[in-house]
Amino acid sequence: MTEPPLSSLENRAIHGLFWSGIERLGPQAVQFIVSIVLARLLLPEQFGLIGMLTVFLALGAVFLNSGFGSALIQKQDATEVHYSSVFYTNILLSLVAAGVLCLVAPLIARFYGEPMLTPLTRVLSLNSVLSAFGLIQVFLMTKRLDFKTQTKVSLMASLGSGVVGVTMALLGFGVWSLVAQSVSATFFTTVFLWLLNTWRPQAAFSLTALRELFGFGSRLLASGLLDTVFRNLYNVVIGKLFSPADLGYYTRAYTLEQVPTQTLGGIVGRVTLPLFAEIQGDPARVRNGFRKALRTLVLVNFPLMIGLLACARPLVLTLLTEKWAPAIPYLQLLCIVGLLYPLHVINLNVLLAMGRSDLFFRLEVIKKVLIVSVLAVTWRWGIQAIIAGQIVVSIVAYYLNSYYSRTIVGYGITAQVRDLLPYLGAASAMGAGAFALTWLPVAQPGVLLLMQVLVGGLTYGLLCRGFRLPVFMDAWRLFQGKVGSLRMTRL
C-alpha cells in the first residue's frame, strides 16, 4: 500500500511538472515563433554579433545567482532574513556586473574586430540590473512549485518582447531589434513578477545568513562560472576564428536544438531538485523518483532529437528559408549532443538535492578540462569537427555524472542505460523511417516535413505501445482514465 507522504509527493510532482511544462512550453512556443520571424527578417551575421556576446552576458547572470538560488531551494529552514539578504546582495552584484561589462566593452569589440560590439554590450548590460530585482521571486515560486504564476509571467513577457523585437526589425533597426527584444523581455519579466507575487523584501540584512548559504552556494557559483564560460566557449572560438555569418549559422542551429532539450531539461530539473531535496534523507525514495523521471525524460527527448535530426533539412528550409541552409549539418550534429543533455541535468540535480555541491564542482572541473582538450584538437578542421568534439565530450560527461549517482543513490550508468535502451531503439526506428522519406521526389520541403512528422509520430507511438514501454503505458492508462472520466461526466 502506498504511503500517504509518497502519494502527496507524487501529486505535487505531477502538478509541478504540468505547470512547469506549460510555463516552459508556452513562452518557448512564443519565443520560437518570434525567433523564426526575426531570422527571416534579419541576416545571419546580425545573429552572429549577438552570439559573440553570449558568454559575457551569461557570466553576469551567473554572478547574480551566485549559487544562492539553489542554496535557498535546498535549504529547508530558510527565513525571510535569508531571502532579503540575498535580494540586496543580488542588486549590488548586478550593478558591479553591469559596470564591468560597460568598462570591458571596447576590449570585447577589439578582440573580435567588430566595433559595433561596444554599444551592443553596454545596452545589453541592463539585463543584469533588471533581472536582479526579480530573482528572489523566482526562487520562492520554484521552491513551492508555483509554476502557474511563472507561466503567466513568462507568457506575457515573451509576447511583449516579441512585439518589440519584430516591430523594430520591420522598421529596419537590424541587430538592435535583437537587443531590444532581450532587454524588454527582462524588463517585462521583472515587472510581472512583482505584480503577480506578494513577496517583498524586508528591511533586513545578515552576513550570517549569507554565510550559511554561501557554504553550499560558493561551489555552485564556481561551477556556474566554469559551466558558463565553457558552454559558450564554442561561440567565442567560432566568433574569433570564423566570420559573424558562420557564427550566426551555428547559433541558429544551436537555438533550434536547444528549444526542445532545454525546455524538457528545465521542466523536469526545476521540479526534481526541490522534490529530491525534500526526501534527501531517504536515498531509496530518491532512487525510485530518479528512475521514473529519467525514463519520462527519454520517452520524450529521444524521439524529439532523433526526429529533429531526420527532419533538419525540410525544417530549416521551410521555417528559415534557403539563406539559412548552411546551418543544416550543424543542427544534425547538435541533435546528437541534445540526446544526452536532459540526462546530465537530472543526474546533477540528484547531487545538488543530496547536498553534494562539492562533487558537482569536481565534475565541472574535470569536464571543462576535457572540453578544452577536445576543442584544441578539433578547431582546425572547421565547425562540424568542433561539434563532433562536443558529441565526444557529452558522452564522456554522461559517464562522469552518472558515476556519483551510483555511489550516492545506487543508480549508475549500467542501470540507467538498461532502462534507456528500449526508448532509444524505438526512437531510432522512428527516425530511420522519417529519414527514408527524404528519398521521395517531394518538391516542397513543407510537404515533406509534414509527412515526416506524421509518419514518425505514428511509428513511435505504435512501437512504444507494441513493446509496452513502462512510462508510455503509464501515460496511456492515464489518458484512458481521463477520457473515461470525461465520458462518465457527460453521461
Structural account:
It is a single chain. This protein has two domains: 1-231, no CATH class; 233-418, no CATH class. Helix 14 packs across helix 19. The longest helix is centred in the first third of the chain and has 38 residues, at 4-41. The protein has helices at residues 4-41, 44-65, 68-74, 80-112, 117-124, 126-132, 135-143, 147-170, 175-196, 207-231, 233-241, 244-278, 283-310, 312-319, 328-353, 357-378, 383-409, 413-436, 445-466, 470-490. The relative contact order is 0.10. It is mainly α and 491 residues long. 85% of the residues lie in helices and 0% in strands. It is built from 20 helices and no strands.
Measured as a percent range, the helix fraction is over 70%
**What Rg, in angstroms, do the CA atoms define?**
23 Å
Q: How many strands, which pairing sense, and closed or not: the largest β-sheet?
A: none
Helix-strand topology string: HHHHHHHHHHHHHHHHHHHH
* Strand portion: under 5%
Report mean pLDDT, rounded to a whole number. 84
- Total strands: the figure is 0
Distance separating the two termini: 32 Å
Structural class, please?
mainly alpha
The DSSP helix count reads 20
Q: What number of structural domains do the residues give?
A: 2
Morphology call = globular
Please mark out the parts with pLDDT under 50 across 5 or more consecutive residues, or reply none: 1-7
